[in-house]
Amino acid sequence: MMLIFGLMLLLLQTAACLDQLCTFDEPYSIKQCYAALGHKLSLQMMLNPSYTELDLYKTLNDGSTLNVFSINKNKKYNYESIRDISELLKNLTLIINTHEFIRNRSEFFFDNMTLTINNVTRADSGRYTSFVVEIDMLMKSDLQVIVEAPIGSVEVSIICSSNQTTVFCSSEGDQFIYSWTLNGKILEEGPMFGNSSIDLDEGTDGNISCSVKNNVSHAQKTIRLKPCPVSLVFVLVWCLQLMVLLGLLGAFHIYMRHTSGNKQEDQKLRMRRLREGHEHTAEDS
């Protein structure tokens, strides 16, 4: 039971960390805001209690604008007599409109002036502009929302060759990069950094970790890396080469013995003929 509860808590923590909060806190500027596909995106408005109108627009691909969300307050209310914002929100008449593309999956929280969009889709990407009217002043702020798919499960595999070990890493998600560690040491030099595979010496031993991350999430997997076993094919090829070499050495040895024997026979024949020639010469004299 405790194990199941622990797993559920871990899943809840994982899901919660994928919910993103972006704030319209820099007037007349554009900030980047990353949202996780399928999770929550909260857009917080930085407002004073004296605001009278709030409009949130989205710029479409064709350049036109879409009124995503708007609030109009009772402009005749005396803001200066209110000290508690909760009292202000309780007594004011609020007219709220949300566009149909988020109406069924969004909610607005007046305590922190935040619009939360649930189950974010890729269509939610784009440039959002906040217009706030405060008595006689208009403030504008922009957020560029970028939706990315969160990192899925990370898989690590190993392939051994004759002189090296290749480790592969794969995952699901958008715009992610890889990083590697071996026995706690970061491998960030040369072609290893940012690649989905690395080449190591065949005798490399230890714990190797592949980390995958993008702007909304990250994941990691660690496996035990052992020296690659000697390949049976390699052993057979080595034995065959050794047999061929021994065969060549044996043939060369036989050839040398045969050649040496023939030379000795030729030398004996020449010596015998030489002796016979001396004997015939002595008889004639």
UniProtKB/TrEMBL annotation:
<dbReference type="InterPro" id="IPR007110">
    <property type="entry name" value="Ig-like_dom"/>
</dbReference>
<feature type="signal peptide">
    <location>
        <begin position="1"/>
        <end position="17"/>
    </location>
</feature>
<keyword id="KW-0732">Signal</keyword>
<protein>
    <submittedName>
        <fullName>Uncharacterized protein LOC109046350 isoform X1</fullName>
    </submittedName>
</protein>
<keyword id="KW-1133">Transmembrane helix</keyword>
<keyword id="KW-0812">Transmembrane</keyword>
<keyword id="KW-0325">Glycoprotein</keyword>
<dbReference type="GO" id="GO:0016020">
    <property type="term" value="C:membrane"/>
</dbReference>
<feature type="domain" description="Ig-like">
    <location>
        <begin position="150"/>
        <end position="224"/>
    </location>
</feature>
<dbReference type="InterPro" id="IPR015631">
    <property type="entry name" value="CD2/SLAM_rcpt"/>
</dbReference>
<feature type="transmembrane region" description="Helical">
    <location>
        <begin position="230"/>
        <end position="255"/>
    </location>
</feature>
<keyword id="KW-0472">Membrane</keyword>
